[in-house]
Amino acid sequence: MKIYGVMLSPFVRKVHVICAEKGLSVESVPVGMGSKDPGFLAASPFRKIPAIDDDGFLLSDSSAIAHYLEAKYPAVPMLPADAEGRARAVQYDEIADTVLVPAFAKLFFNRIVAPRFLKREGDLAAADKAEAEELPPLFDWVETVCTDGWLVGKAFGLADIAMAAPFVNIEMAGCVPDATRWPRLSAWLGRVRGRASFTRLAAVEAAILRS
Ligand SMILES: N[C@@H](CCC(=O)N[C@@H](CS)C(=O)NCC(=O)O)C(=O)O
Q: Which of the ends of the chain has fewer CB neighbours closer than 10 A, N or C?
């Protein structure tokens, strides 16, 4: 299966981690936004990353891909089987994509993407303001939903992956939640980031950042 998209995107990271957890072999096609790669354009009509080509089945949107992979490769489940657990996981995935990612992106875009990849200055004041004012209430909320184990049910899954993925981006941008202020969040994040599916990607991501 081909996965289109650079790993620095939290949405792309989500799909790679799911595939790793499920033991699927993938080929990474690290296209960026605005790529004219014909395979990517066919798979992602609005040119958003990630997209996949699974033996000719083309699909974009990380959540759509997550649900496709769950249905097609169910042996290692990433979603709870019960109605409440499944709904909660879908909700946390959506919150990660629509609340955490846009807020966290203010740090990642202005401190990393703009200077390193677009060769222009980022709006550092906007990044600092987001870090000081927008992120703490979001960390407060995550703190309330963290348990001693995984976010939903007893097993690691989509909710953990989707919610942790954007934290990788803010860490790259120099922001790590204070473990004394957000101890449950920090401990949960440590457990997630310690999984092989995350640590293997970290090496690739570090190389991209160095390039
Ligand atoms: N809901 C989509 C969001 C994907 C998305 O917005 N990806 C960004 C990169 S992080 C992108 O491709 N942006 C390009 C654009 O908006 O033109 C998903 O979950 O895959």
A: C
Tens of pLDDT, residues 27-67: 999 999 889 999 999 999 999 999 999 999 999 999 999 99
Q: Ligand 1 centroid vs 49 CA: distance in angstroms? A: 5
Q: Which of 59, 56, 57 is nearest to 48 (CA)?
A: 59
Q: What is the pLDDT of residue 210?
A: 87
Could you say which of 49, 72, 95 is where a domain stops? Answer: 72
CB 142 within 8 A of CB 99: no
Is residue 77 in a domain? Answer: no
Cα–Cα distance measured from residue 95 to residue 98, given in angstroms and rounded to the nearest whole number: 5
Contact 163, 151 (CB under 8 A): yes
Q: Is position 32 within any domain?
A: yes
Interaxial angle between packed helices 158-172 and 62-72, expressed in degrees from 0 to 180 and rounded to the nearest 10: 140
- For the chain, which ranges sit under pLDDT 70? none
Q: State the residue range of the domain holding 128.
A: 83-210
99 and 42 in a common domain: no
Question: Do 7 and 26 share a domain, yes or no?
Answer: yes
Q: How many domains does the chain have?
A: 2
- Please check whether residue 78 lies inside any domain of the structure: no
Q: Under the phi-then-psi rule, with left for phi > 0, alpha for psi from -120 to 50, and beta for the rest, what region is 204? A: alpha
Which residues sit with their C-beta closer than 6 Å to ligand 1? 9, 11, 33, 47-50, 61-63, 97
Residues 59 and 90 reside in one and the same domain:
no
